[in-house]
Amino acid sequence: VKEVASLPLVSSGWLVDPTVYASTKESHPCVRSACDAAEKGMRSVTEAKASCVQPVLTAVEPHVAAASEYASKGLDKPEEKLPILQKPVEQVLSDTKELVSCRVAEVKDAVTS
User: What sections of the sequence does the record tag as coiled-coil (predicted)?
Assistant: First the structure.
């Protein structure tokens, strides 16, 4: 959870206006997946703490550490294949707007010619 939350795309997302965050999530499947995973992890941690399962968590800590290590290794693949995860939300929005503008300009030029 900490590793996902530390990804620039996710961590900067917490600071963005909620409507922009929701809109961006809905518009970009890759962003949605990363944000959903981070949100689910945060909910799980909060719920676990709230239900007073700390003694149980302490007892299973070695197993949790092993699972965490595997999860961390599993996150390496998406980070490699989805470089968008390394960018803050503002940059993703800016890059997306620029890409759309370029495509629209190309289509306009093609239609005009």
Answer: none
| Separation between Cα atoms, residue 74 and residue 92, nearest integer Å | 23
Q: Provide CB contacts within 8 A for 98, sequence distance 6+.
A: none
Q: Are residues 24 and 72 both part of a single domain?
A: yes
Identify whether residues 69 and 89 lie together within a single domain: no
- Say how far apart CA 72 and CA 6 lie, in whole Å: 12
Q: Say whether pLDDT at 58 is over 80.
A: no
Contact 16, 89 (CB under 8 A): yes
Evaluate whether residue 13 is within a structural domain: no
CA 34 to chain centre: 3
The 10s digit of each residue's pLDDT in 23-57 is 777 887 777 887 788 788 777 777 766 666 667 76
Cβ neighbourhood burial of 113 (10 Å; 0-12, 13-18, 19+): exposed
